[in-house]
Structures
1.
Amino acid sequence: MPHTQSVEHIPVLANEFIDALCIDPDGTYIDATFGRGGHSRMLLKRLSSKGRLIALDRDPDAVAVGRKLEAEDSRFKIFHHDFASLEEAIHDAGWHKVSAIGFDLGVSSPQFDQPNRGFSFQQSGPLDMRMDFEHGQPLSQLLKHTSEKELAQVIRDFGDERYAMRIAKAILRAYKTNEMNTTLDLENACFHAVPKQARYGGAHPATRTFQALRIWVNDEYGQIKTGVQAAMKHLKPGGRLAIISFHSGEDRRIRDMIEEEVNACTCPPQFPICVCGRVASMRWVQKKPIRASEEEIASNPRSRSSLLRIAEAVQVDPSQTDPGQNDPGQSDAKQMRGKQMRAKQ
């Protein structure tokens, strides 16, 4: 059931995020991760009476907050969608191309602070971890049908956890003996699974495993791939994409997806001209991620790991998508490399 207790959430990199997005006060905007609405409210303050904003969230608690904002401001509309359903939300709004889309990934402070969510190992809660209680399977159910090898791969791939196999074995051993019923039980299994020398002095031994299991339960990386690809597809020329991530796995995937559209040509470098027909649809505005300032980290410690990347859609000339047509931004460089290689021969 939704939990509607009000818990303060401070949006991270707020000014930098809104500055990146708000390029036209009369434009159409999407907040793909509404949360508790901090970024949406800031963006609405920048928009004119003609500007429009829609927001998405899979969390019923977040949608309930969005409904209140919807009643207060006619320029705003909330959709109970995950951001993998971004394209559907754009269609439902009657839009096609938009001015900017923003993503603030990860878990909001209220979600962490509500024990019934199961996201935190600092309080006792159920083994759930779903963003939306109405969809998907809780962690407790997924563990029933998972092998040690599969669980270790989840923890290793999604959490970059060095002791993934040891932790996976400990979790499933406790689960099968009915000693794994709460998040504190899960924390205890993680803590005692790692070597003694790794238990102290750094992040809590359960940190990476809780992150990995949350990503797994909610298919977060699949969501990111679908949502970001849809976002790039629906930006107007000059439209902005701003994404805040919180750990290297998220950031790496975002960087690589955008980079594929920035350097779209797949021809070997020795080819004198482009023959693949793929041209750039995006350009970097801020490839090197923006990080929170020391002042922001002091006032909001959860901003410490936040990373903001910004990109912009470019006008694609349909004639350049035909194989053999030269894209000035890409094939000129290929022609130069081709000349250099021929000169060496």
2.
Amino acid sequence: MLRKFIASSIILLPLATAPEQLPGKIIVIGSAMYDQVIECAKDEITEDILSGIKIDIRRVRCCAGGGCINCARVFHHLGLPIIPFFKVGNDQLGTILLNQISEDDIDTSFAQRDPKMATGTSFIIPTPSGNRTLFVYRGANETLSGAELNLENLPEKPSGIYIAPTNIRLLIDLVNYARKHKISVMHNPSRTELTSHADTLEMQLPCITILQVNRQEAELFFKHLEPKENFSLTAFFTAVHQRGTPLILLTDGSHGAYLAKQNSILYHPCPSAEVKCTVGAGDALGATFFGALLYGVTEEDALRASIMQSIAQVTGTPQLSLAALLERVQNEPSVIHKKITGQIFDKGISGRT
């Protein structure tokens, strides 16, 4: 039995009664980074933290990160079967990163190593708002290619493909593979894809089932899609829908999140929580949403579950299994607001345009 979204060329999502009953594993593709998280006293963090002042650091916490690794961890916590595809350098950091991922019980058998490029590295800097500034060296991630993945020789057809920010050549290869085999695709594009490669990204929209962006990214992409129009949420949703993507998951920070379908918009306000770190929140939200849909959960319940998982990420609490999330969804009242397309949405449900 198949559950079908609004008309598009690749939008069939399989229903299942248990994670192990998914017809195939979820391919997770994106960057693998050696994250170096800088921690210092809050009273020493100012807006001009990079203007030349010297700040003592309490510690530097190092861990495996990047879009692919973050999402792979989320899918693993959900209890869903995955195949992570990523690339590191043939260097010491690459070995450390692979060992850390293996300790998380995540399959690294499909990982690639680049003999020339170094492992991707990021430096995560605190800011007064609680958000983090990231300095990113993508390194070996930029050379990952569709040919290395050898998707045509997988032992079984994947249930879906989750594409975290990646290089544009690989995105094209993945979309072509998904189109050929009628596989659902969720994509969380990078800032570079939304600006420098916006033309190419636009061409892939008919075969992307779910596009995930935040508000700032939506504004950047909208300048390319409709350069003569003023930005609004509904204008952006309409522009993307017209180009063939049936679902848009848009986050708006403390203002909440939107799920835009062709005939309605769901809005989930942001729950109040003590935010410790926002890094990885988007990955937690997107992976949970996609995994829940592939599992057969409704769009509304998938949105609620993904918000719960994202809040767990930003508050530093343990990630939840899909079963635990769905139990909470069933037992807690929904705060989702629904809007039918065509109704006035100038200030949105959240008061944002």
